[in-house]
Amino acid sequence: MRNHLNGTQTRIDAARGGKLDYSHFVHTFNEIVPPSEFAAHPDWFSQVDGKRTAENAQLCVTNPEVLARAIEVVRGWMKAAPGAAIFSVSQNDCFQPCECADCKRVFEEEGQAWSGPYLRFVNAIAAALGKEFPGKAIDTLAYQFTRKPPEKVKPLANVIVRLCSIECCFAHPLDSPAALDEANAKFVYDLGEWSARSQRLYVWDYVIDYSHSIMPFPNLTSIAPNLRTFVKNGVKGVYEEADYFTPGGEFAELRTWILAKALWNPEYDTEKAISEFLAGYYEDAQRPLAQYIRLLHDRAAQQTIHFNIWAGPDSPLFDEATLKRSDELFDQAEDAVHFKPAVLARVETARLPILYVELAHTPSAALLERFDRIARASGVTKINEWQSYDAWLAEMRKLAK
Ligand SMILES: [Zn+2]
Ligand SMILES: [Zn+2]
């Protein structure tokens, strides 16, 4: 509340000012028509290579029965959640769009964009429910195979498109020149195209490493510039997907601080955000930690080392000299606060990412036990979005000598 963080996952009730609430947040096709209905209605699901399937697939969005069902389901959601402002009608978290003749025809009509049939489907639901539920919006994704904008159809006024930056590099700002960062330049091109078509464009942005959430992710200086790029392109809302699945993620508290400041004021100076947070949270350890943050971010910028959200410990960012210097800085940081156990614990948590990389390079039993002691104290339950900490530890113990 103090930092004005808002969103569907914040636990802020009406007595504390309320929040912007979604009723159904994302990837809702399976909730609209569950795969269990496949046997009775195979033609409601994706046709892939000539065969209908409900396994890791989508709905047939040009089938009128699917549309009728979707309108009824979303009407039910809206009745059941009068306080919610946004209802997501969005593709499942996989590929395999329907390639039936009708879906394929719309794909072609829309300039070979899968977003075409999807957006026409979502618009039809929004048109059917708009009068009955004024003030409520239907949200959908421009994500992976639907990221390319359609040529003809535009989102209706009560439709929100959330464009997802999942393919991008976050070590460098999104608006970097194409010669430096091709993935980012392509995204910013699509951002401009969606912006030109939309009244209410949102971005679903990613701010951590999902394969290695306890690993240095040098994006702290990209967050605010990226928000400025969104603002410049008329973006009305942003969801910053971070580490929602475990405590002890890399610089989780600092990253949240930067996000809170920059989301409310995209001009907020990142250096200021970092230094004020380090001073308040790490106290006398602030100087070596500031040097450590600069070391990694400068190296990623100067050596043009890219970081997507699945980058691993084999990244060229982590050469021997950088790891050695990082260790020296963390030794200094721990020394500076060794008489304050609570602050020392925070510094140790901040050091886990470097230990994690060192363990990946050279699994040593002693280092692993040290990592485990700190990770337990930090409350770490997962090592990435899908693997439990205990499963990872068991694997590492087999490798460690
Ligand atoms: Zn189809
Ligand atoms: Zn890059």
Notes on the protein architecture:
41% of the residues are buried. The chain folds into two domains: 14-268, TIM Barrel (Alpha-Beta Barrel), CATH 3.20.20; 277-399, no CATH class. The longest helix has 21 residues, at 341-361. It has a five-stranded parallel beta sheet. It has 13 helices and seven strands. The protein is an alpha/beta fold and 401 residues long. α7 (252-264) crosses α8 (270-282). 44% of the residues lie in helices and 8% in strands. The chain has helices at 29-32, 64-80, 101-109, 115-129, 182-197, 223-232, 252-264, 270-282, 286-302, 320-336, 341-361, 365-378, 389-399; strands at residues 46-48, 51-53, 86-88, 137-142, 159-164, 201-206, 237-241. It is globular. It binds zinc ion (2 copies).
